[in-house]
Every structure is written in C-alpha cells, then in structure tokens.
Amino acid sequence: MTAPVFRRMAPLALLGPFLAWAWWVQVGDIELRYAWYGLGPMGYTYKKADPQGFARDFPNSTEEFDKSAVMRLYPLAYRWLGLEPERLVPVMMAAEMLLMAAVMVALTRALRPAAPPAVAALAVLLAVASGARDMNLAQFNQPFFWGLYYNVTDALRLIAFMLVLKGRVVAAAVLAAAAFACHPAMGLMGAAFAFAPLLVKPRELTRRANIVAGIAFLALTGAWLMGVIGLRGVTGEGFPRQLWLDLTQAFGFHWYPVQNGMFTAKHELVFLPFLSFLALVAYYLTRRGSQGDTDRKAAASIVAGLAMVALGVLFSAAPFSPTLIKLCLHRANDLVLTVGVVYVAAGLWGELESGPAWRQVAAAVLLVSPFLAPPGFPLLFALALTAPAWAAVARPGAGGWGERAVFAIGLAALLVAAAAASAGRAASPMSDAYTGLKWLASAPALVGLAALVLALVVRHLAGRWLPGAIVLAAAGVGAVAFVQGTLEPAKDRAADRDFKAAQEWARANTPKDALFFVDPTLYYGWRDYSRRPSFGNLREWLYLAWAYNSDYAVCQEGMRRFGEFGFGVQQCFGHRPPFEGFRALSRELRRRVYTAPDDARLALARRYGIAYFVFRKRTDCGRPATHLPVAYENGHFLILRAEPQGGATPAAPAPPDRLQTD
Prior knowledge:
Helix content: 55-70%
Largest sheet: 4 strands, mixed
Strand content: under 5%
Mean pLDDT: 89
Oligomer: single chain
Strand order of the largest sheet: 1-2-4-3
C-alpha cells in the first residue's frame, strides 16, 4: 500500500480499534448504571418471566418495552435460549455501535460520495463519541448506548432515508415501518423525514412504486398499532386532561422545551448551538453552486425535520392534546443533526484542504469543539465561516436560497443572543455557545492550535495532509475523552456498587414476591438486579408509570400511595420552570420518609404488604430514624425488616395512620 493510500484509509481503519475500546469501557460501566438508574432490560425481562413474583410491583414504564420489537428480543432470548438479559446487553451495545458507525459511513457516501475517507471517519466519531447530536430540544441524551431501542430505530430510519434517495421507496417503507415497531414516535418522525424527498417532484407522487410504498407502510404500522400498542394507550381516553398536563409538566422535561426555558434561560445549552450548526449545514449544503438531486432531496428532509420541530414546540407550548404532546415532535431535530453532521464534516474538511489559513483554523476549531466542549459549534466561528453568504445577500440581486437561509439562521442566532442579553440571561462571552474561547484557552487546546498553525506554516514542506492529520488526531483524542466523560463519575461509583450489592442480597436472601419499599426519592434502580417488586417511587407514582399510556387507574393508585405521606401533590404545581415543582416535592418527601417514626412505617407495611425497607445511610436529612431490625447493610445502604425489634406483631396504628411527621 502506497503512503498516500495509507494516509487516506488510515482514519477508517482506526475506527475499529476505537469502537472496540469504547464498547469495552462502557460495558464495564453498564451494570453500575442500571443498578442505580434502573429502567433496564433486566427488570422488564424478569417481570415478564415471573408475573406472579412481580404481582405487587408498582409499574415503572418498562411495561411499555413490550411495544418495541427490539426489546422483545430480551425475554425471547431468556425464555428460549436461557440467555440472561445481563449477558445480552453487552451484545446489544456492540450491535448499536457497529450499526450506527456503518450507517454514518453509508450516509457519508450517499450524501458526499467524493469526500475522502477522513470525512466518513469524522462523521462516525461525531455521531457516536461527541456531543454533536446532543442538541436535542427534548433533552434526550445522545449518544446513548445502553442496549435499548434508540439506536436501532435511528439506524433503520436513516437507512430508509438513504433508500428513498436511491428511489427504492418500497424497501424504505418496510424499514420505516420496522423503525415504528421499535419506537412508534421516532418511527413516525423517521418516516416523515425519509419520504420528504418525494415532495421535490410532487407530480411523481402517484407513481405505482410510491403508492405501493404508502400502502405497505400504513398496513405494517397499522397492524403493529392495533395488534401490539392499542388505541387506548395512544389517546388516553378517560384521563382528566388538566391533571395530565399539570403532572407531566411538573415531572417531565422531555415534552415541554418552552416551559423549561430551552429557548430563554437555557438557550446556550442547546438552542443557540443548534442554530450555529444549522447555519453551517445550510452553508455547506448549498455552497457548491447548482445543487444535485441528492442535495435537493436531503434539503427537503431537513426542512421536514425542522417543520416537525416547530410543530412539536407549538403542541407543547399551547397544549391542544396529550396525544400530540406525547409525540414529542421537537425531537425530530435528531434527524436533522445526524444528516447535517455529514454536510458539516465534509464542508469543514474541505476548508482544511484549501482556503485561507484563518478559515482552516476556524474549521479545525468547529470540528473539534463537539468532542471537547459539547455540544460544540460556537456561534462566533460559525458566523465567521458563513460570512460569504451574508455578503452575497447584501449585494442587490445576489444570493440564492442557500445564502438567504444562512443569513436568516445567523440573524436568528444573533437575535436570540441579543434577547438573552437584554433579559439578563446571556451566558459569558467566553462560553462555549457564544465564542468557545473558554475551552480554547485551556492548555491542551492551545497546544493543538499551535501545532495546527505550525503545520499550516510548513505545509509546503511536510505536505498538505499534515493539518488534516492534526485535526483527526485531536478529534480522536477528544473522542476518547468524551467516552470517558460519559462513564459514571468516580464519586458515585461506590454508592452504585453498594446499591447493586443490596439488590443482589435481596435476590439471594428473600422470597421472590417480597415487596420492598425503596427510598422513593431514588430514581429508578432496584428491580434490575434484585428481581424483586418495588412499592414504587415519587416519579413512578406521579408520572412515569402512566404518562406514556395515560392509564388513569394507575395514576390514581400512584396518587394514593403518594398521599400516604401526608401532603398534597398540588405543591408541585405553578413553579417556573415546572420541573422545579418535582424537585421541591422530592426534597419534602425525602424529609418525611427519613424522619418518620417506626410505627408509621409498620402501619404502611401492613396496609401494602411491605416486607423490607431500603434506605440510604447518608442523605441531606441524615440517617433514617429507626429501630427496625437490620437485615443487611453496607457502606451506603440499609435494608430493614418490616417488623419491630424482637419480631412481634406490631400494634395497630394510632390515628392519624398516614406516614407523616407534622
């Protein structure tokens, strides 16, 4: 292999070892994550395998996993192959990473076929090991490799998009329907995004292939909707609308970006970087002059994605219907980000290979920023590189639709920054969102910039490849740092291990149907490794157990359980942002639980059949005040038997019989 060919192919070749390392370190962390955060394939699988043992378990939304074709693999593998979900999760994580990497390489070749392999490698790193896709207005973390359905759904809908670009609409319809079967809301958004290119030539919509594709998609998704999901869970019939809105606004942050300040107080976290990114996408998508058919189709999909974002924001800001809110359409910017990453990576790489030195430095900063200062794309550098579009619009009669789009997006970003400044909500001018100068002033960034400038000075001696090699090396180092940054913090690992140990003790030493009262302000771990039912927690009672299926009976039971602690749910309403109401409720609930007398705990145990209480040994409320017998303890947790010292039957509770202290 000649040196030039080696240099061209090396970035793609190095992806394999990097992905293997990233998988290895994240697999080593996943059990601790699920032990603490819960909501994993383990709890879902064991609940399905032993419904009698979990008969008294309070729902925690993993029941909704049954609506995902991907998640159904876990109980099937456990039932037919004896493969425990703990062993299958690492396999699924590897499949997620490889699938997304392969899709990003294919997407690069589909959208920018002439781009060098380095661009595909950058696109992969940006998608799987950076904050470039973490500009989600619904605050869903990206990337997210936990062996669930998100990445499989993403891959299926992106493949459907690429198939539409190639004119294979029937195959695309089947894959879009498969995405729907993995995650219905994401699948619907993916279908709208994937098939938007057909609108470029509306006269061809009535072609036979398009009609067959439409029928196939509707038939497959309709069958899954009627046979697996059911209409009642979609519509939420019988649930009081205002109560649903009040509780979901207080406890959920995914569905309400306006109320939670994503465009105002928190604009620099997601919205402003997203606008910077959009300006770059519009610039590099259209700067080649006359766009090809593929670019026009991709532009149609991006516009469709942005339209869905606008509708999602509208539905959440002026809530017409719980069903429309649950679609969370503003999450569609996931697709805009993933496709846009290819255009931005290719465009910025082109800047590195030609053009003035200052543009090469600006391009390098933008390429590396999502790894070192997520989500990246500081506004100052985006505006600098897209300035030619502004100049074109300023000339009378000049500037095409691409330049006008860049101008409109850039102007919107400046207006957002100005509005934030006038309201006293602007971040520091040094912030990552505005200028990026804060992270650029760090020692590693300064060393990298110095090396890049030196390479630009001597490139006529070392070759034009050296600046790009430095940027790729910086991106690789940044990707490693990013992956390490996603791991559970060292300060939390001891508590995670102790909580997992407590769960394993419960599994080995208690009856299968023993009901545990776990600190209801600990979200959400318990079931995955204990394989034991839980009395539930605050977020499950008042949100998670019923928010997606709108089951009012489950909500009523959750409110009844919350009512055992002697104060009203109304205390969480009316806060700004609404999510502060949940935090206030959580603090008060923790205080009441940890300071309650033992007779109130035992009365609660009699009413619900609770066998054990699980408490943290150290909280802001101190150690739990109790004389109940200790069944198990470690450095961070206590498991108490629900019986008085000596094992005698507790006396009947004196009124009032609610678990309260004031």
